[in-house]
Write a structure and sequence with these properties.
192 residues; mainly alpha; 10 helices
Length: 192
């Protein structure tokens, strides 16, 4: 790297933070995809193909419910002039917790109906356990969003990749030990 490139990365202005943000975002996304690829290669050797189909249904339900009920909390914190005020962040966090709890309850009670639609009785338990995920995610700190707002993504990248590595390692160990789709569900809950 040239000296001017290193100097632009080391500065404290918006340009330098934006450049560092791009580098850390690429590292986070690239690292996450590499980890996911390696874990999927290992998991396909440990589990039967139907496990991935069942987990796909669970992820569609949980992700779909999450996307359908999106309030724009992240965008509000990043773009609002009040995005760093404690009262604003506390309100956003409270709304996030309420939303996650409502989603968890809805998914829990819809599990039986969705299992009937797919004619897969095992989906009842998988969806009911996975209903915990939106509740857990509802308690995510607003500091994560504040880091996005301030474009200070170094620590966030390290935490994200470490968390994903831990979760995928647990998922692989559970798949080796249990040999069922429950390894995927429990692994997802360990590191959401």
């Amino acid at each position: 790297m040239h000296r001017w490139q290193l100097a632009s990365l080391a500065g404290d202005g918006y340009g330098s933070r934006a450049l560092r943000g791009v580098v850390f975002t690429l590292l986070r996304l690239g690292g996450a995809n590499i980890l996911r690829l390696v874990s999927n290669l290992i998991l396909t050797r440990l589990l039967f193909p139907e496990a991935f189909g069942l987990m796909g249904i669970v992820q569609v339900v949980v992700t779909g419910a999450t996307m359908f009920s999106e309030f724009g909390i992240r965008s509000s914190i990043i773009h609002s002039k009040r995005g760093e005020e404690e009262i604003f962040l506390n309100t956003a966090w409270t709304i996030q917790i309420i939303r996650g709890s409502i989603l968890g309850v809805l998914i829990y009670f819809l599990a039986e109906y969705l299992a009937e639609i797919y004619n897969e009785p095992v989906l009842i338990g998988l969806l009911q356990i996975s209903a915990i995920l939106p509740v857990i995610l509802g308690f995510n700190s607003t500091n994560i969003l504040t880091a996005d707002r301030q474009i200070t993504l170094g620590r966030l990248t390290i935490l994200t990749l470490a968390s994903q590595t831990f979760g995928l390692t647990c998922m692989i160990l559970l798949a080796w030990w249990l040999g069922t789709v429950w390894a995927l569900v429990l692994g997802t809950l360990i590191s959401p």
